[in-house]
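User:
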Amino acid sequence: QVQLVESGGGLVQAGGSLRLSCAASGSIFSISTMGWYRQAPGKQREWLAEITSGGVTDIADSVRGRFTISRDNAKSTVYLQMDNLKPDDTAVYYCNLVVKVLFDSLTKTYWGQGTQVTVSS
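Assistant: Predicted structure:
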């Protein structure tokens, strides 16, 4: 019913920047919270940031000041701008959207397929 497509990952040197995108499509009535998580090898999935439908943001302490979350409601897309990247930021990054589906009274949570970010020293 709802598909998420992530893009923007890749290989970057320490100190560089990347911008991740996550675009939703399908039977969407509305999207409330949009967020980003990451999972490094051998570690648990870590919450990074979220943004409400009204644009209120929250950022994890571990990336505050370097990562910025934003959204384009017209495009059903959430972004994660990552600056001053460090080798410890190497992980698979996932978007997470809370969606109210058309013709369904419930809200459901959807995950992107993940995009690899590798930061070299």
